[in-house]
Amino acid sequence: MSENNMASPMKVNNDSQGEIQNDTLVTCSQPASTITPQQSISNKRSLPDSPDNLPATLKQKTRQLRRRADRVLEALSSPEVLNTIIPILSKQISDTLEPIIEAEVKKCVAEEIQPLLQKLDCQSSIVETQKQQLIKQFIQLSSLQRTTQDQITSNNEREKEINFLYNRVALLENRLEIQEQYSRRTSLRFNNVAIPADRIQGAKIVHPVDTDSIILDICNNKLGLDIGIRDIGRSHVIGKLKQGRSQVIVRFISYRTRQLVYSNKKALKGDPNGTFITENLTHFRTNLVKQLATLKYNNKINACWTTDGRIFVKVNANSQKRIINNLDDISDLESDIQQLEERTNTNNSDGM
Questions:
Q1: Where are the beta strands (DSSP E) in 78-213?
Q2: With contact defined as beta carbons under 8 Å apart, do 185 and 279 qualify?
Q3: How far, CA to CA in Å, does 3 sit from each of 7, 74, 97, 224?
Q4: In a domain, 112, yes or no
Q5: Where, if anywhere, are coiled coils annotated (predicted)?
């Protein structure tokens, strides 16, 4: 390629020399022209740089330069030259522009990233602060959890102790109730007993009341027994008067005398005054008997009675007797009664 390039200028020079010779010949062969004054005046007014006004040598040089320029442009536009120059120029341009572009890109990236970095630093600081706060809260929470766990353990121990004490108190109350009932084993209550009253003073009891004589009259005349004053330890009215009647509690000297009177209580059935005899029960057992009396009134049970302070009940005439010691026993009894009624209703519906 370099040989071709070197040959091209030589060729151009040879051509230009030939052209100069031809131009010289043409110039010499032309006749000498005569210039009139008018023509000289018009020549002075024309452009001084125009090729027509230049000397012959300058014209030739100008034409030669133009031709050379055209040939150079033609040579430069050839594929061979372009294929050689373009890679070189591309490399030079790339080497020149690459650092500039890289610097500009880095600058732009830095300008865009810098606010993000600042924001990231700020967020990192906030995160670190929150992290420290979370650590403190976690420590406090761990401490609270340990304290809570200790409290739960302590409460469980206290609850066990309370349950133990509750069961112990319940046991002691039961024992006390049994002991209290046992202390009443020689006592009976005579209900609806006619008591002397002062009607003028609002039907108040006239004290002193000879309850011993009243009880002996009931036992000997109505029950058909033979007991004397020595069989009675103590007797007195209890409660208020209701239509001239009240309760009289009697403590007998012996359990045998008390049991003799209580075993003959059925002799008072149909008494004109409505007098009847019951055991002297504790307040707790009296409430149990009242609930059973309500069930009997509603025809839920067949019978209920007491013997030596113990409470018995029969659901129907053919069922076995059940002993009632507390409210739970009554709840179980009511549940059994409900189930029995449901079975009875089911059998009746199936029979129909």
A1: 187-194, 197-198, 204-205
A2: no
A3: 6, 17, 32, 169
A4: no
A5: 323-350
Q: Is 323 helix (H, G, I), strand (E, B) or coil?
A: strand
CATH code where residue 227 lies: 3.30.70.330
Of residues 260 and 51, more confidently modeled: 260
Question: What gap in Å lies between CA 191 and CA 248, rounded to an integer?
Answer: 7
pLDDT in tens, 232-285: 999 999 988 888 889 999 999 999 999 999 999 999 998 888 999 999 999 999
Residue 276's Cβ-count burial label (10 Å; 0-12, 13-18, 19+) is middle
Number of domains in the chain: 4
Share the mean pLDDT of the chain: 82
Rounded to 5 degrees, what are φ and ψ at 199? -70, -25
Cα angle 160, 164, 166 (rounded to 5 degrees) comes to 115
Show the tokens assigned to 147.
Answer: 């304290």
The residues pairing with 190 across neighbouring beta strands, listed in sequence order, are 248, 277
Tens of pLDDT, residue by residue over 291-332, are 999 999 999 999 999 999 999 999 988 889 999 999 999 999
What the block records as the tokens of 130 is: 């929150």
Whether residue 274 sits in one domain with residue 312:
no
Please give the model's pTM, rounded to 2 decimal places: 0.55
Dig out the tokens for 50 from the structure.
């125009």
Q: Are residues 167 and 231 in the same domain?
A: no
Amino acid identity at 162: I
DSSP code for 218: I
Q: What are the tokens at 33?
A: 């022209």
Residues 191 and 178 both lie in one domain: no
